[in-house]
Automatic annotation (TrEMBL):
This is Hexosyltransferase. GO terms for biological process: poly-N-acetyllactosamine biosynthetic process; protein O-linked glycosylation. Belongs to the glycosyltransferase 31 family. Pathway: Protein modification; protein glycosylation. GO terms for molecular function: N-acetyllactosaminide beta-1,3-N-acetylglucosaminyltransferase activity. Its cofactor is Mn(2+). It is a single-pass type II membrane protein. PANTHER family: BETA-1,3-N-ACETYLGLUCOSAMINYLTRANSFERASE, N-ACETYLLACTOSAMINIDE BETA-1,3-N-ACETYLGLUCOSAMINYLTRANSFERASE 2. It catalyses: a beta-D-galactosyl-(1->4)-N-acetyl-beta-D-glucosaminyl derivative + UDP-N-acetyl-alpha-D-glucosamine = an N-acetyl-beta-D-glucosaminyl-(1->3)-beta-D-galactosyl-(1->4)-N-acetyl-beta-D-glucosaminyl derivative + UDP + H(+). Keywords: Glycoprotein, Glycosyltransferase, Golgi apparatus, Manganese, Membrane, Signal-anchor, Transferase, Transmembrane, Transmembrane helix. It is an enzyme of class 2 (transferase). Its EC number is 2.4.1.-.
Length: 402
């Protein structure tokens, strides 16, 4: 072929390629122009992808946002650790270096701080503190691996409740061929809360029964979350081998036989993430100052995650350890059962509702029916005298229930 012919052929090929490119481009543009409702179509954002962070005005939410960023693996990458990118001003922590000192930022950042209940103020001032001296410990109580660890939240003056539990559903030893252990969780009684000094009696009780755990912090309603966190830390160190944990108040009745029967029937997969109780959903903070669970907007905004009522719930020992670890990434909240729900949400878990947990009590017409308690797992609330009576109904086989 002559040089002129080769040159002409190359030119023709180039024209064909250009025409193909134009056709493809027109087709793409036509597709984008005529398929606006196609959900799979790629759209170019009309706004900036990165937006400036808008801080919440509520104190707890701000603290949690800060923790979320600090625990983000991208923030903790080598890029940030080498200070190549400066962190935004809102992440700078101006609180005390010692987390157990009073947080002087609180009265300035919570606009209605001075109108809050004194115990609520105390909680907020020490919200970052998670380490308190242990006054009474039982480091060897789990030397023989418990199948079930019964954990009871109590107050120092409640000697009668603890004794009723020891004589009934909280009996330590072997029950239904499974090892069971019981511990009572306590803080310190403060004269500010009008408690008498009963520490000497408590020390005697601890030596006698060897089932008390006590920390040196102010034992109030708003510090129940702290009691939860301190227990999880103790569990991880002293009792991580326990298969299951049932945690409840000292005014609940627990059908321990029913609990063990249920647990024995669980599959391994179900047991790992077990968390059951009387689950509350679609709840939020109460704004009425007269209510026990009052939380102002200056402290928290938003909905609560699903959570099990704090009167009593049950979970696996494996999950207890994971809750302990994840709790470091969740700011303490003044309502303990809500806080546990927050920790579960961080783990990607949702508590399971079980009809055997009656944390809001049962109908009055059924309260004196022995057979009702045979099928239930936990009932709130009962007196020590009722506890003894109900237990006798559960353990005596001569009562026939059809």
């Amino acid at each position: 072929m002559s040089p002129f012919g080769r040159k002409k052929g190359k030119t023709l090929c180039m024209i064909i390629l250009i025409n193909i490119f134009i056709c493809v481009l027109v087709g793409i543009l036509w597709t984008f122009g005529h398929n606006k409702d196609d959900p799979k179509r790629v759209r170019i954002p009309s706004q900036r992808f990165w937006r400036p962070h808008i801080m919440s005005k509520s104190f707890w939410n701000k603290e949690q946002e800060r923790l979320d960023v600090i625990n983000n693996p991208l923030i903790n990458s080598e890029l940030f650790s080498n200070s190549l990118i400066a962190l935004p001003d809102w992440l700078n922590d101006t609180g005390p270096l010692d987390l157990c000192e009073k947080d002087f930022r609180v009265p300035r950042q919570i606009i209605d701080y001075n109108t809050l209940p004194k115990r609520f103020q105390d909680f907020l001032l020490h919200m970052r503190c998670r380490t308190y001296p242990m006054l009474i410990n039982q480091p060897h109580i789990c030397d023989k691996t418990p199948f079930l660890l019964l954990v009871v939240k109590s107050l120092i003056p409640h000697f009668d409740r603890r004794q009723a539990i020891r004589q009934t559903w909280g009996q330590a030893g072997t029950l239904a061929n499974r090892p069971v252990r019981t511990v009572f969780l306590l803080g310190s009684a403060s004269s500010e809360d009008n408690f008498p000094n009963l520490q000497g009696m408590l020390d005697h009780e601890a030596k006698l029964h060897q089932d008390l755990l006590q920390w040196d912090y102010r034992d109030t309603f708003f510090n129940l979350t702290l009691k939860e966190v301190l227990f999880l830390q103790w569990f991880t160190k002293h009792c991580p081998q326990a298969r299951y944990v049932l945690k409840g108040d000292d005014d609940v009745f627990v059908n321990t036989f029913r609990i063990i029967d249920y647990l024995k029937g669980l599959s391994e997969g179900k047991a790992k993430d077990l968390f059951i109780g009387d689950v509350i959903i679609n709840a939020g903070p109460h704004r009425d100052k007269k209510l026990k669970y009052f939380v102002p907007e200056s402290v928290f905004v938003g909905q609560y995650p699903p959570y099990a009522g704090g009167g009593g719930y049950m979970f696996s020992g494996n999950l207890a350890i994971r809750l302990c670890n994840i709790s470091q990434q969740v700011v303490l909240y003044p309502i303990d059962d809500v806080y546990t729900g927050m920790c579960l949400k961080k783990l990607g878990l949702v508590p399971e509702k079980h009809g055997g947990f009656k944390t809001f009590g049962i109908e009055e017409k059924y309260r004196d029916s022995p057979c009702v308690y045979r099928d239930l797992m936990l009932v709130h609330s009962v007196t020590p005298q009722e506890m003894l009576k109900i237990w006798s109904w559960v353990v005596h086989p001569h009562i026939s229930c059809n």
